[in-house]
Amino acid sequence: MIVETSDSQDSKVLSEKYQCLFSNTNLKYEIGAYVHAINLYPDEDEYFLFQDSLEIVNDNWEDNFRKLSQGEKLVTLCGYFLKDDPCPGCGVEEFESLFNCKFPTEEGYAVMTNSFYITQSAKQKLKNFGIDRLFAHEKNDTYKTERILGAMAHYTCGIADLSELLGNYIWQVDQFLPGFGFTKFILKHIRKRQ
Length: 194
Description:
The structure is a single chain. This protein is an alpha/beta fold. The chain contains eight helices and eight strands; from the N terminus they run βαβαβαββαββααβαα. Strands 3-7-4-8 form a four-stranded mixed β-sheet, sandwiched between helices. Strands 1-2 form a two-stranded parallel sheet. α1 (12-17) links the parallel β1 (2-6) and β2.
């Protein structure tokens, strides 16, 4: 496991706790760290690309991602339909400009909080599509990368969401269920968005 952070020591405690490699770089936000990681470690069988503020609360949580992936799909920790996006149009111009494809508003998912799982096969398809061109210069850009990652997966490897196994309670904060590998961090974001 590698923990990467941009110009900060905040994640060092986490990396020491789990005996991870620690890299303090000038990479920008989640997408910068993820692209750096998949390029630095190109031959891994699978990648769990999560923000460092996630809290894992259940053993064997990895199996849910693997099951939904079917060896192929990107699996979001928490996704939402692009057609239900609370920020309509966010990321559309950037996606269409970068990749010369129509943004899949009606059929695509977004990758909420930019936290997801991919297999080697899915990683390679995203690389071939151009994930190396995706970046965030500032915090607001990360909201666009959530949508663009989902759109990229739509066109390459397919996408699934943990709610397919755990139910749509993830959007109902009064029904938060502990013990599923879900996180306080995601819960905080959902409350903020509602």
